[in-house]
Amino acid sequence: WLAQILDRTNRGIREDLTSLSRILTIFTHLEEDEPELVESQSRATRKYLNRRDQLHGFESRILSYLEHHSFQLKTSDHRTALTQLRTDLDEIFEDPMEATILRYFDIRKWLDRKLGA
Description:
Elements: H1 2-7, H2 15-31, H3 35-50, H4 57-69, H5 76-92, H6 96-99, H7 107-115
């Protein structure tokens, strides 16, 4: 499903769904324990998103986390990074415009599962 959306980029697919599809694809690589793909896809996604007029706060923060911590998936620093990401996103999602993404993917639930909360 994600691949179909990405294959149709610039062909009538809403921009928010395209950007979310890119981010969800990265999370798929993260869950599959493929840090090299996480890192490269994160950079490619950032490049794609930077071409838009506006980079949303949640996009920027998630990509920052993915670019800098995908190689630490098995370290103790990773838990600290996840906790900080959760805190940052809670603050970002106080903005109703930013919080609309939660209708499609509630990353906070994913973070809670990763943190064992």
